[in-house]
Design brief:
Immunoglobulin-like, mainly beta, 1 helix, 9 strands, about 120 residues, single chain, 6-stranded antiparallel sheet, disordered N terminus
């Protein structure tokens, strides 16, 4: 899926190896905090391949006000974006929203560049 040119995905695609080996893989952790009263679903989306976490149409649950960590196994150098939404009310969202359908200017990070901290506010 190469739809978000703003993320620099076309240039990044040339950097990814044609065949991904275990040496190309690394972990990145997104630390998320839900500062709303809503029950929130969250997924993470690769911008240069069909990678999605947790995948298969599922989402992680982000409830309460605690900090939650989500560790993703990803290809070093690929852009990963988060999408979060109010469960049962998909029109209220953060980042790239449900199914990575929304444009976001600051919801992506490069795999291998360290951990990310995100707080969802109203």
């Amino acid at each position: 899926m190469i739809t978000k040119i703003a993320c620099g995905c076309v240039a990044l695609l040339a950097l990814l190896p044609a065949r991904v080996s275990s040496q190309d893989m690394t972990d990145m952790t997104w630390h998320m905090r839900n500062n709303t009263s809503y029950h929130v679903g969250i997924s993470f989306y690769s911008q240069v391949r069909s990678g999605e976490w947790p995948g298969n149409g599922k989402a992680y649950e982000l409830s309460g006000y605690e900090r939650h960590g989500y560790t993703l196994r990803c290809v070093r150098g690929e852009d990963i974006c988060y999408g979060a939404w109010v469960v049962g009310h998909n029109t209220t969202y953060w980042g790239s929203g449900v199914d990575d359908d929304q444009y976001c200017s600051n919801c992506c990070s490069t795999c291998g560049d360290g951990d990310q901290e995100v707080t969802l506010d109203k």
